[in-house]
């Protein structure tokens, strides 16, 4: 009987250091950048002029705004294009993700260095991104802010696929759901740190959160932790030297020219070999439905993370630091559910676990929307966090299982193409909804609809479950013979 494989938790958590550092940055970025944008855009004479011009050209917009219950006499609650522009700007990171993450995922598959395939991208990308991240709150004008934001989100997109690919590279197929749970636990810890950072800084140093005194220090803290995460990966995570095979083949050539020719030929053969590995029709269908399911799933979750700070300010009267502290409840719930979600995915299957999470997510959001009881927001944060982790830890392993071990980087790119496409669409679509509805309460209508469509798509997926360990051992023994 084959020996049962066991996950090395310590090693997996160290691998998760890179994901944790990026999670801290995004946990800070989403709530704080929306408040920074709202402050700067609300003071923009250009945005005000465009809003007024639109009302003059289409006066029925003003009538519609009145019907939604908005006080059009107030500069803060009258018809304005600010929510739409916030939504558009918040898609920048996702646009860059869709364009560049698949490219760098594929590029890392073919990278050969003494540091391995993935780590070189992290070593360069993370510290550089940290610099521009720290500069964001220092910008006083919209153009200067946009320069820092664009450079930050571009550089982040160069190392996201490589850092995520580290785990499946170094983990057997049957253990990836469990390992992904550990990685997401690390991400949850990072998210929690980012969410409570503002509150802690205000408490320790006496910053006035209403005056945004903590903004610069929160971003600086995120930058420092990104750099620390990179150092952990440098010193404690060791990828195999991916040059060894290429060097052995190249050494067969008699001279430098022959070495280069051999390397080119080998690269061509490898490319053709990977291209020849095709999915069956059934696998392609499952992949398409899974990617559409991810698209609508992330339409819902991204709208929450992007606009929750503004929702909490408008509906609950919270400051940015208080809003991020509320989201810390979501993060804690996610962390507690991380490891059980991975084990549940192994026990009952990834697809079933994802569907249970989606149904739970939908239920708590619908309940809060119907009742309007503000106390239920805490229930939604707790149960929603657990449900979100049930989904998150199983979706990426499911997609990678469809693609196979040879194309981990490529299918990681597909995964992020779907999720980042959603994160491009969602802020714009919800920004328009908010602009016309006049309230961020519509988050709790928009998100359940997106989750329902996602549930339908994932229900139709027929592939992507883990290969049983016994089957893996039998195949390895057959290949050895």
Q: Explain this structure to me?
A:
- The structure is a single chain.
- Helices cover 79% and strands 0% of the residues.
- Mean pLDDT is 78; it is low at 67-77 and 469-480.
- The relative contact order is 0.15.
- It has one domain (9-241, 280-480): MFS general substrate transporter like domains (Growth Hormone, Chain: A), CATH 1.20.1250.
- The chain is mainly alpha-helical.
Radius of gyration equals 24 Å
Q: Please give the domain count.
A: 1
CATH classification class = Mainly Alpha
* CATH superfamily caption: MFS general substrate transporter like domains
User: How is the biggest beta sheet arranged?
Assistant: none
State the oligomer: single chain
CATH-scheme architecture? Up-down Bundle
Low-confidence stretches: 67-77, 469-480
- Structural class, from secondary structure content? mainly alpha
Mean pLDDT: 78
CATH topology assignment: Growth Hormone, Chain: A
Task: Give the helix proportion (percent range).
Answer: over 70%
Strand content: under 5%
SSE run: HHHHHHHHHHHHHHHHHHH
Helical region count?
A: 19
Q: Report the span from N to C terminus.
A: 18 Å
Number of strands: 0
Topology:
Blueprint: H1 9-15, H2 17-42, H3 45-57, H4 60-67, H5 82-89, H6 92-109, H7 119-135, H8 142-169, H9 176-205, H10 215-236, H11 244-250, H12 256-276, H13 281-315, H14 320-348, H15 350-371, H16 376-403, H17 408-437, H18 443-459, H19 469-480
Helix pairs in contact: 1-9, 2-5, 2-8, 2-9, 2-10, 2-13, 5-17, 6-8, 6-17, 7-8, 7-10, 8-17, 9-10, 9-14, 9-16, 13-14, 13-16, 13-17, 13-18, 14-15, 14-16, 15-16, 15-18, 16-17
